[in-house]
């Protein structure tokens, strides 16, 4: 169909591979996927997918697969560029990386966790629609093998861009929702992106880092006492910080989030990063809420300690990866 919207999907991890699959399954758009470490394997064998929505043992080779943004341009121009990479400002700027594939009419869709993830995109792409995708999917990619264990529920709204009309941003957003939605998943238009991001953070700001720091999945964390001793307290702090930022969340959300992956021994995406030795989403998941707490005078001792510990772990990961050099001779105070 000549009028199908053209989508570029960047980052085919647990979330991105399933997003690419969902878009292609729906058949309402043409999709090009940019793959990095999985490129050769997926070109040859496809992804192997076990999905609670679509079934087990699926072999999926995206229709158009490329290994760089430069190479993707042969399939452009793109109506949507979907970013499903980790959001790690200060480590890599994905907005700079995707820039060659973004034209003035391209909407950028951020399917990523965290708070304040849109700032860079709005700053660097002031004329573009920037969409916020909040995903409850629970999906991981280990060497092209996708394990997807929670029903794909994606809510998509727009981060308000004052340079564009709300009508236009809403139209572009609703078009994406209708392209993503199919008979196996759920995708809805999100009227209140700020609320959804704080709500999701109740899960991510506690469980992601504490599972990463302890290397325990959510089941083991609960059995060994960490859910009651740490997670509930961190979640309460997120709710208080959200309130200081104008978002009211119910305390009942804590149990909803704690129970949301039952009965799976789920490894949150940040624990999967630890398993792989990848950099962590420290700033958008922990740093930004802690900074907002400070600014608004909200006490957040648990989140602050979690953030401080996570920064140390991040340093070790970066050092191991050669992204940071520690001086051979230790610099000590004179
Ligand atoms: N996993 C989950 O269930 C959920 C995750 N989220 C959020 O969604 C986002 C994505 O998470 P997740 O899917 O787990 O992440 P993954 O780490 O599984 O996947 C990220 C992917 O991005 C790729 N990538 C990174 N940089 C580039 C680049 N420059 N060019 C091309 N590809 C690149 C990586 O490739 P490579 O392998 O080469 O590094 C990897 O395939 C995060 O913000 C996460 O917090 C939200 C809800 C649920
Ligand atoms: C809460 C969850 C599991 C999505 O469903 C997630 O966001 C993650 O693993 O980072």
TrEMBL record:
Pfam families per record: ApbA, ApbA_C
The Ketopantoate reductase C-terminal domain, residue ranges: 192-314
Highest taxon, organism lineage: Eukaryota
Catalytic reactions on record: (R)-pantoate + NADP(+) = 2-dehydropantoate + NADPH + H(+)
Domain Ketopantoate reductase N-terminal: 7-160
Molecular function (Gene Ontology), one example: 2-dehydropantoate 2-reductase activity
GO CC list: cytoplasm
UniProt keyword annotations, A-Z: NADP, Oxidoreductase
Stored InterPro entries: 6-PGluconate_DH-like_C_sf, 6PGD_dom2, ApbA, KPA_reductase, KPR-Related, KPR_N, NAD(P)-bd_dom_sf
EC number in record: 1.1.1.169
Gene Ontology biological process terms, A to Z: pantothenate biosynthetic process
Top-tier EC class: oxidoreductase
Functional note: Catalyzes the NADPH-dependent reduction of ketopantoate into pantoic acid.
NCBIfam families according to UniProt: apbA_panE
Family according to the record: Belongs to the ketopantoate reductase family.
Name of this chain's protein: 2-dehydropantoate 2-reductase
Organism: Lachancea thermotolerans (strain ATCC 56472 / CBS 6340 / NRRL Y-8284) (Yeast)
């Amino acid at each position: 169909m000549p009028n199908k919207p053209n989508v570029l999907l960047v980052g085919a991890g647990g979330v991105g591979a399933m997003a690419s699959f969902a878009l292609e399954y729906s058949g309402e758009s043409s999709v090009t996927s940019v793959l990095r470490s999985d490129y050769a394997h997926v070109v040859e064998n496809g992804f192997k997918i076990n999905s609670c929505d679509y079934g087990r043992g699926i072999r999926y080779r995206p229709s158009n697969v490329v290994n760089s943004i430069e190479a993707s341009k042969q399939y452009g121009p793109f109506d949507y560029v979907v970013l499903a990479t980790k959001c790690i400002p200060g480590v890599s700027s994905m907005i700079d990386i995707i820039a060659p594939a973004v034209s003035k009419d391209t909407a950028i869709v951020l399917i990523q966790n965290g708070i304040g993830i849109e700032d860079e995109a709005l700053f660097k792409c002031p004329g573009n629609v920037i969409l916020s995708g909040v995903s409850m999917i629970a999906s991981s990619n280990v060497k092209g093998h996708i394990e997807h264990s929670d029903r794909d529920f994606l809510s998509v709204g727009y981060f308000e861009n004052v340079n564009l009309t709300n009508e236009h941003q809403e139209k572009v957003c609703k078009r994406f929702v209708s392209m993503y939605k199919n008979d196996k998943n759920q995708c809805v238009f999100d009227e209140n992106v700020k609320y959804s991001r704080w709500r999701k953070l109740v899960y991510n700001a506690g469980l992601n880092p504490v599972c990463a720091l302890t290397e325990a999945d959510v089941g083991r964390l609960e059995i060994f006492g960490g859910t009651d001793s740490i997670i509930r307290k961190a979640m309460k702090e997120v709710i208080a910080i959200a309130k200081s930022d104008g978002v009211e969340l119910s305390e009942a959300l804590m149990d909803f989030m704690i129970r949301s992956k039952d009965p799976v021994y789920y490894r949150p995406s940040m624990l999967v990063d630890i398993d792989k030795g990848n950099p962590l989403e420290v700033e958008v998941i922990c740093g930004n809420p802690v900074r907002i707490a400070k600014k608004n005078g909200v006490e957040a001792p648990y989140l602050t300690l979690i953030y401080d510990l996570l920064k140390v772990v991040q340093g070790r990961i970066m050092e191991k990866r050669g992204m940071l050099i520690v001086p051979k001779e230790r610099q000590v105070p004179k």
